[in-house]
Amino acid sequence: MRYRVTHITHYHYSKPVTTCYNLAHLLPREFHRQSCTHSSLLIDPTAASLHERMDYFGNRLAYFNVQHNHSELVVKAVSEVEVRAHSDLLDTAFPMAWDEVAPYLLNSRRPDDLDARQFLLESPFIEIDADLHAYAEPSFVPGRPILDAVHDLMGRIHGDFKYDPDFSTIATPLSEVLAHRRGVCQDFAHLAIACLISHRIPARYVSGYLETIPPPGKEKLRGADASHAWFSVYVPNRGWVDFDPTNNQVPMERHITTAWGRDYGDVTPLKGVIFGGGEKHTLDVSVDVEALDT
Amino acid sequence: MADHQTTADAEQRTLCGAYHPLDGMYDEMCTGPGESRPHWSYLRQSLETLGPVELRRRYGEARRLIRDNDVTYNVYSDPLGIGRPWDLDLIPLLLGSEEWAQIESGLIQRAELLNLLLKDIYGPRRIIAQGIIPPELLYAFPSFLRPCDGMCQGPVTSLPLYAADLARLPDGQIRVIADRTQAPSGAGYALENRIVMSRVMPSLFRDSHAHRLAPFFRAMRNAMNALAPSGVDEPRIVLLSPGVGNESYFEHAYLANYLGYTLVEGADLTVRDDHVWIRTLGHLERVDVIVRRVDDEFCDPLELRGDSFLGVPGLLQVARLGNVRIANPLGSGVLQNPALMAYMPALCRHFLGEDLQLQNVQTWWCGDDQDRRHVLANLEHLVIKPLSPGKGPRTLLASSLDNEARDRLVREIEARPHLFCAQERAELSAAPVLSDSGALEPRHVVLRSYLVSQEESYTVMPGGLTRVSASPGDYLVSSQRGGASKDTWVLASEPEKQETLIVPARHVVPPTRRGGDVPSRVAENLFWLGRYAERAEGLVRLLRVVQLNLADSLAFASAVTPDSSMGLLLRAVTAQTRLFPGFIGEGAESRFAAPEPELLRVITSGIPGSLSQTLGAMLMAARTVRDRLSVDTLRVINDVDIELRGLTAGPQQHLNDVDDELDNLVTALVGFSGLTNENMTHEQGWRFLEIGRRMERALHTASLLQTTLVPVIRDDEASQLLESVLSIIDSLMTYKRNFPLGYEVSGLLDLALLDEKNPRSIGYQLLSIQKHTGYLPVDRARQHLSGEERIILELLTELRVSDVDALSAADQDQQARLSLDQLLNKLQFQLVNVSNVLTASYFQKVERLHQLVQIRAEG
What we know:
The structure holds two protein chains of two kinds.
Chain A: E1 2-24, E2 34-44, E3 49-54, E4 60-66, E5 70-83, H1 98-107, H2 111-116, H3 130-136, H4 146-160, E6 162-163, H5 174-180, E7 182-183, H6 185-198, E8 203-210, E9 228-235, E10 239-243, E11 255-261, E12 270-276, E13 281-291
Parallel strand pairs in A: 6-7
Antiparallel strand pairs in A: 1-4, 1-5, 1-12, 1-13, 2-5, 3-4, 8-9, 8-11, 9-10
Chain B: H1 2-13, E1 30-32, E2 35-36, H2 41-68, E3 72-73, E4 84-85, E5 88-95, H3 97-121, H4 126-129, H5 135-139, E6 161-168, E7 174-180, H6 187-200, H7 202-208, H8 214-226, E8 237-240, H9 249-259, E9 262-264, E10 269-272, E11 275-280, E12 283-287, E13 289-292, H10 315-320, E14 325-327, H11 344-352, E15 363-365, H12 369-377, E16 382-386, E17 396-397, H13 403-415, E18 420-424, E19 430-434, E20 440-454, E21 457-460, E22 465-468, E23 485-490, H14 520-555, H15 565-577, H16 588-593, H17 596-604, H18 611-624, H19 631-647, H20 659-679, H21 684-709, H22 715-728, H23 732-738, H24 745-754, H25 762-773, H26 787-801, H27 804-808, H28 818-842, E24 849-851
Parallel strand pairs in B: 5-23, 8-9, 8-13, 13-14
Antiparallel strand pairs in B: 1-2, 3-4, 6-7, 6-20, 10-11, 11-12, 15-18, 16-17, 16-18, 19-20, 20-21, 20-22, 22-23
Helix pairs in contact in B: 2-6, 3-11, 6-7, 14-15, 14-18, 14-20, 14-21, 14-22, 15-21, 15-22, 18-19, 19-20, 21-24, 21-25, 21-28, 25-26, 26-28
């Protein structure tokens, strides 16, 4: 499928900002099942400097700096991407058991396997504890095939947790999300990653978008019209396999990947430091994902 | 028998004979009681010759030098810890030339190894691909900074500065106990120790043939110059400090001065157009090299820790582009991971293809199953180091934990093994220190050695900073724990020839002095230093005259009334300090009856406006700009500090209790103004100090004249009042010379207000401010006067055209001098305006830095 993604962030400040410095993970990365044919980042007012580079995880990261007084900042990212399906990875009966993964990784010297080991560790947004481990446990029966176990975990999160945008904020710890069984896609992705690494399975956070208007006959997915997030699991000899606990499905052609990392903090769509700006600032965000193949 | 006894007694009586090395420990000086190592014999003889009394005397001299130079170290946990004097023990640590050669070679190897390791960690990470270290060792360590990935590459040195903490174990071998790689501190203290030692023990130092330190600092300047981006011939180098609250702020200022760099804080720097700039007065100057004393994560709130106010947003991006070089580069803290020490021999073979020369203390990383088992089985004998300590301790002694804490530690290690490592408990060697009684006592020592890159390799400081444990048996040696320090003498096998100090021409760096580099924060602090110093002086002068008059009026048992001379002077105290109600507002009557408690409150309370608070603010301003002040000026600042401590020491009951302090303060404050005039370069910073001082003097005098001369009082009181006012503004003698016929208001006003030749008059202050503001950087495109110049010119003109007789005349009711009141009101109002205009045009606007709200993935 081909899409055009338009992501607009509009900041309004109560007093002029004299200088701002920003980092944006807004342009989609390329990988084996996604190409990006066109992308642009428009900043208003004009940035004095704008540099795009590849970050530690291989994502596209833009740095920009506006150095004259402004009371509003508009960042508009427009990209055209092609997403390919990956049905070969849906094989839940793939023979490796979840509890074989960690011992296998410990003894492997293959670059992919070594690289995956950093996704076994806690990170600023993901702290594991006994409760998280206990919540995950029923999905991880000894010897169960890895993809089957993760599928089960995804289904349980979807069933047990209520989507509630008013419950959590960026700062809500996972323990609270678990205790109240509420949150948004970001929380569910973090929660699943914590469950997985507590069982010594490498998992990472994926940030991206969903198609806004579904094709005829398909239901509209939760998370359209905004940034979306899901998680990915590392399966030795197979690679990374994505799961979307918010919609209880394995992302196929309708999930557009922007960036991945250990957690939200590694791939924050837009962050920045400003001087001035007064005490209050507000922002509007709009995301539009339009299918180009009709 | 009797003879033997006498010899033993004599031996006991000698300084070194009475020294008892610690049992079972390696002693740096002695091989056994009374037996010293050969390289200590000369020092030992010299100490005997000096004897305990003379040694204590010299120690006192060293203390005085340290205090006079204001060498301080801030101890965070100590309420008096800010500005605590540096503690230097007089007995140096000696190292023989042969042993030093080995240490030096081992240190150079380690620095070269760490340099290559740093490049690999932020580059190809072959050490992981090739299985030299397990991935978790790197990836779980919080100082591995992912935003720094891809940096520290290229042929140039990534690690220009390096320091290692060295200790000698009971087997006599020197080991590395810690690596300092991000912002090694202490080299400045080592230099200061050497300067003090060579002054206090000149002949001992000269005849011991210790290697000199100056060549090391020259190498450091060369190395920092060599870092400059290509095409920059005369790089502008700054030293970035976290600020005056940092433990080693003294050193930051000291080194910045010694090396000729501008001392800056994060807020003095800004990123624009992909370069780093220093905010100086009115314009920006490009910065090429930053020598930093701010830790990695605090350097850039955009890419690193968002809650840091010590850094510069965008700094990492400028460094990434190669437009600024940072020593050491951001991310280099990753090498301080103590768990890496477990892999040093393997890393050395991997990178250099040779064996490690200088071993580190034995280290086990709990992420390794075998190591973890060893650690858990031997917990009691090990030092545990959490690799991600957060707010917890950096080092734990399992043997000192109770059972509960010990079990908790074991559980933590088992839950997150990769976040812990353990090290053998290094039983540090001991060396003699001079005790309070003048005897020698053993204390454990740790030596911090310094290296700087030179050409393709490194050069080592021949010496270093030796730190001493607070008590025998305490192996955790740190200045924060209150131990002293020692100078370190690496003994040359023969006297160092003078020629060795002459550096080949190509190594000589021309000294650069950029007088224009006054960060606007520094200018602001100097302005306020001038104001506070003058405010304090004016207040002390007033208080002393009040005190004198009060003693007289008490002697005559006359009651103080609000309209008496005494009453007006007391009111002046309240008006000037703005400590209302005081002698002006509600309840003033009762305070006139017994003025002492209120006056003591003015002096010692610490409330804004009080003398003690003004002096505190002055000291604070002085310390933040200490790199701009001369050594003699710092000495006076220290005297002020001592008097302030005296003022606030105990409950002061009577004014008499603070007599001495007030007298000494006048001397110190007058000394301060004289010295800043004589010893400071008359560059922009000094002009701000002068403007501040002049403005405050004018304000003070205006306020004094307004309180005392606007009301018209009885003739019999008037003479005493005029004499007092003249004495407060130090113009009594001048008055008597100019007006020999007696005290007249008009004469006083002429002298105190209009006479532009009297350095105490308001006219003189305005003239002086006018002169200095004329030199301040302005937008030269503008033809007209700057805002502050316009106000000053207007005030001066008004003063010049005013008529003393009209000002001295009372209104029709004979109650008050209204035109004087009007003039003085205007003067005060407009002077405050000048201050505001200067602040707006030259001083950095205090702009808070905010993090933008981030949008979460709502999906």
